[in-house]
């Protein structure tokens, strides 16, 4: 506890539905590279990166200097009613990197706003408020994005401005499709989509919104190729595909720059956020011009793509590409992922180690079942912190440890974090 009892002050003025990590919450006061320091002076290896947001690490000189250059001009904000050079330059780069032909980009402040904008565009383009979404998904905390979030723990309202029909995710551990092998799960998922369209919709569906790897859902993902199989059906009906890349974008999965690329398909709309700002508020939606131009009235984002955040975004992209952080995510992620799989292979309490690149998860269950063990997960979570490692939690049942370190993670740091995690798991199982 800090000397001025910050926790008590937090509870006195902030809502109770804003969670704090750990039995004794942390105040982080400094950071450098992949490490952060708390108010008591203890340093931790950061394997969660502000929920996968400090993508290239803390206090990166190139990013700090780019932001400071903009601050020295005296212009922090101008609004998008004026030309913003950094915004145009970043939009050109994002459009090019997106893989979407004839792309346009609209900047927002967060992934929630990006997904909200994508839904606005899709429903206007199709003149329908019918949406397909995926079970166990998370897309944001606003009215519409909550409506397409398939995780009850994050659905804070039963009210919904959209008419939503739900698809199976194709995950391997639970659900109707889990009993099938990967190839059969894709076929079953397509059959599920066709049945949902025939029975739960009026036909003129606007879009399917889906995460290539479900973030809050515990890094669950269906088989590669699932999006392509879905899109064949969607194209028969003119339904748009939105790929929510808020957590999977910018090379985090290692094998691809965007999560959708594992499926051999190009979405109509792509949303991005988190890592591109490396802590500065920056997000957006990119899509084909004919789709993104479907908004029939004036609209803009007051702070979206402002001079400071786009200065950071351009510097982040420079650093990301110059240092091949996608390649690093693949190499270092393999050390971490393979190490976790090997260390937990004989443990009945570990149902699955999954994920791609530096987007990894460990799911805990009661031995001999797939019944979630949230209590064990809590013990592992706290033990990692005690060992000097910060990780995340997630999953539909709160029984998943999530790891999303900065993409600059070194091999030595991966092995250090791996050793702490393995010890935390073993000690927690024996507790």
UniProtKB/TrEMBL annotation:
Mention one GO molecular function: alanine-glyoxylate transaminase activity
Ordered alphabetically, the record's keywords are: Aminotransferase, Pyridoxal phosphate, Transferase
Note whether Transferase occurs among the keywords: yes
Names of required cofactors: pyridoxal 5'-phosphate
Enzyme class comes to: transferase
This entry's Enzyme Commission designation comes to 2.6.1.44
> Which superkingdom?
Bacteria
Q: How does it assemble?
A: Homotetramer.
Give the family per the record: Belongs to the class-III pyridoxal-phosphate-dependent aminotransferase family.
Annotated protein name in UniProt: alanine--glyoxylate transaminase
Phylogenetic lineage? Bacteria, Bacillati, Actinomycetota, Actinomycetes, Micromonosporales
């Amino acid at each position: 506890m800090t000397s001025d009892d910050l926790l008590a002050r937090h509870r006195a003025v902030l809502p109770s539905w804003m969670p704090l990590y750990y039995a004794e919450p942390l105040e982080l006061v400094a950071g450098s590279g992949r490490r952060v320091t708390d108010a008591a002076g203890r340093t931790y290896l950061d394997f969660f990166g502000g929920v996968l947001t400090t993508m290239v690490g803390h206090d990166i000189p190139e990013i700090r200097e780019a932001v400071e250059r903009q601050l020295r001009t005296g212009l922090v904000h101008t609004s998008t009613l004026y030309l913003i050079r950094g915004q145009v330059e970043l939009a050109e780069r994002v459009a090019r990197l997106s893989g979407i032909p004839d792309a346009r980009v609209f900047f927002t402040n967060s992934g929630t706003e990006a997904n909200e904008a994508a839904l606005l565009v899709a429903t206007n383009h199709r003149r329908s408020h019918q949406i397909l979404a995926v079970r166990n998904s998370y897309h944001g905390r606003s009215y519409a994005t909550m409506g397409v979030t398939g995780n009850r723990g994050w659905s804070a309202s039963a009210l919904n401005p959209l008419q939503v029909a739900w698809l199976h995710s194709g995950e391997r551990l639970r659900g109707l499709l889990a009993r099938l092998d990967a190839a059969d799960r894709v076929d079953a998922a397509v059959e599920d989509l066709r049945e949902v369209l025939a029975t739960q919709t009026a036909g003129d569906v606007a879009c399917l919104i889906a995460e290539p790897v479900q973030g809050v859902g515990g890094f669950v993902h269906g088989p590669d190729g699932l999006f392509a199989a879905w899109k064949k059906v969607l194209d028969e009906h003119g339904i748009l595909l939105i790929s929510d890349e808020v957590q999977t974008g910018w090379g985090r999965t290692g094998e691809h720059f965007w999560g959708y690329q594992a499926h051999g398909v190009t979405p109509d709309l792509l949303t991005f956020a988190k890592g591109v700002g490396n802590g500065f508020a920056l997000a957006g939606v990119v899509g084909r011009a004919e789709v993104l131009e479907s908004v029939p009235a004036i609209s803009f984002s007051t702070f979206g793509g402002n001079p400071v955040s786009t200065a950071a975004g351009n510097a982040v992209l420079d650093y990301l590409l110059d240092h091949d952080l996608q390649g690093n995510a693949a190499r270092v992620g393999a050390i971490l992922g393979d190490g976790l799989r090997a260390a937990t292979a004989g443990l009945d309490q570990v149902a699955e180690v999954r994920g791609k690149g530096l987007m990894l998860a460990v799911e805990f269950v009661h031995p001999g079942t797939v019944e979630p063990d949230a209590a064990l997960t809590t013990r592992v979570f706290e033990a990692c912190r005690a060992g000097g490692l910060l990780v995340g939690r997630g999953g539909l049942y709160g029984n998943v440890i999530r790891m999303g370190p900065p993409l600059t993670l070194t091999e030595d740091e991966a092995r250090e974090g791996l050793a702490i995690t393995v010890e935390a798991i073993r000690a927690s199982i024996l507790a």
